[in-house]
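Q: Please design a sequence for this.
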C-alpha cells in the first residue's frame, strides 16, 4: 500500500501519461483497501479517484466500484445516480461517458442492478433491454456489466438468454488475461466478475434442473473464492449457501433427501459469514451480509421444522430470517420456494453479497 501511495505521490503533476498512471494506482489502492476489509477507506479512495480521473473511462470505473461497495453495504440508492454526480466536469478534457456506448452500458448496468435491489423490475427492463444485448459478449471491458445483465434476465425468467450471456462472459474470461484489465476496482474487478458469472451460471443450471452441471460450476466458484480470498472469507459462505440451495432443489426434483448435507453446508456458511446469534438483540437489522444470512437461515429453518425434535429451534430461526429479510422484489417465502422459471426467481450476486 505504501509503495502505491508513494508512486501516486511521485506522479502527481508529472508529464504526459502521469494522470493515467495516477488513476490506475488509485484504483489499485481502493481494491487493496477493500480486500483488506477496509470498505469505508476504499470508498473514500474511490471518491478521490473520481475527482482526479483523467478520462471518462476512469471516472466510470471508479463510480462503478463505488456503487458496488455501497450495494454491498446495503445502502439505499436511486437508479438516477450518475458518474457525473459530485464531479466537476469542467476539469475533464475528454468526451463525456454518455457519448461512449460501452461506458453507457457499464453505467446502465449498475443502475439496473440498483433497480433490481429496489424491486423495480420494469425500470430495470428499460435500462437493460434493447441495445444492452449488443454488449453482452463481454467486450470493451464490459464483462462486469454483462454479469448484471445476465442476472437481470435470470431474475425475470429468461433462462435461455441468461444462459447465453453467462456462457459468453465465461468464454471471454477464458480467452483474456484478467490481470491486464485494471480499469475496475473494489468488488467490480474482473476476478470478481468471473466469480460472479460462474456462481450465477451454476444457480441458473440448478434452477433449470441440470444438477450435475450446476454442481460443477458451483464447485468451480467455490474453489475460485477459496483461492482468491481464503477459506474463511464471506464470499465462501455466500457460495456455500448457493451450493446448499442446489442440493435442496435436487432433492426435491428427485424425490430424495439430503438433509444432513444441506444442514452441514448451511452451518458452515453461517459460520463463515459470522452470523450473529439468533437471540441477539437488534442484530437482525444491523448485520453485514444480511441478505445472504437471512436466506441461509430461512432455508436452514425449513430443514429444522420437518424434524419433530427441532421444531422450536426452527421456529426461532425462521422468525429471525423473516425479521432480517429486506428484499423488495420477493418475500422470503417466495425466495425459498422455487417452482418453475415463470415464477419470480432470486439470484445471489457474489460480487455485492446481495440477493437480487
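A: Design:
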Amino acid at each position: 500500500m505504501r509503495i502505491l501511495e508513494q508512486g501516486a505521490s511521485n506522479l502527481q503533476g508529472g508529464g504526459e501519461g502521469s494522470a493515467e498512471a495516477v488513476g490506475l494506482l488509485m484504483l489499485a489502492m481502493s481494491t487493496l483497501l477493500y480486500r483488506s476489509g477496509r470498505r469505508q477507506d476504499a470508498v473514500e479512495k474511490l471518491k478521490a479517484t473520481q475527482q482526479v480521473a483523467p478520462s471518462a473511462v476512469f471516472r466510470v470505473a471508479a463510480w462503478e466500484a463505488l456503487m458496488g461497495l455501497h450495494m454491498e453495504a446495503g445502502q439505499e440508492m436511486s437508479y438516477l445516480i450518475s458518474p457525473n454526480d459530485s464531479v466537476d466536469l469542467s476539469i475533464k478534457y475528454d468526451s463525456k461517458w454518455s457519448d461512449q456506448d460501452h461506458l453507457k452500458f457499464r453505467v446502465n448496468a449498475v443502475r439496473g442492478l440498483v433497480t433490481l435491489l429496489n424491486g423495480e423490475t420494469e425500470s430495470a427492463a428499460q435500462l437493460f433491454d434493447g441495445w444492452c444485448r449488443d454488449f453482452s459478449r463481454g467486450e470493451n471491458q464490459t464483462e462486469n456489466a454483462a454479469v448484471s445483465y445476465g442476472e437481470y434476465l435470470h431474475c425475470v425468467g429468461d433462462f435461455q438468454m441468461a444462459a447465453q450471456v453467462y456462457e459468453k462472459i465465461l468464454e471471454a474470461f477464458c480467452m483474456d488475461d484478467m490481470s491486464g484489465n485494471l480499469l475496475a476496482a473494489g468488488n467490480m474487478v474482473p476476478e470478481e466478475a468471473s466469480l460472479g458469472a460462474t456462481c450465477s451460471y451454476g444457480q441458473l443450471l440448478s434452477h433449470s434442473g441440470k444438477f450435475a452441471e450446476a454442481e460443477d460450476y458451483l464447485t468451480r466458484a467455490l474453489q475460485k473464492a477459496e483461492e482468491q480470498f481464503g477459506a474463511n472469507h464471506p464470499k465462501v459462505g455466500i457460495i456455500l449457501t448457493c451450493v446448499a440451495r442446489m442440493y435442496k432443489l435436487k432433492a426435491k426434483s428427485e424425490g430424495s433427501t439430503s438433509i444432513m448435507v444441506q444442514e452441514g453446508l448451511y452451518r458452515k456458511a453461517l459460520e463463515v459469514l459470522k452470523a450473529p446469534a439468533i437471540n441477539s438483540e437488534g442484530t437482525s437489522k444491523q448485520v453485514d451480509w444480511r441478505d445472504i444470512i437471512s436466506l441461509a437461515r430461512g432455508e436452514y429453518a425449513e430443514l429444522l421444522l420437518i424434524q419433530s425434535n427441532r421444531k422450536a429451534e426452527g421456529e426461532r430461526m425462521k422468525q429471525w430470517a423473516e425479521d432480517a429479510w429486506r428484499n423488495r422484489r420477493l418475500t422470503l417465502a417466495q425466495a425459498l420456494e422455487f417452482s418453475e422459471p415463470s415464477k419470480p426467481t432470486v439470484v445471489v450476486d457474489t460480487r455485492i453479497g446481495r440477493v437480487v
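Q: Thanks. Anything notable?
A: The beta strands are 348-349, 354-355. The domain at 2-355 is CATH 1.25.40.10 (Serine Threonine Protein Phosphatase 5, Tetratricopeptide repeat).
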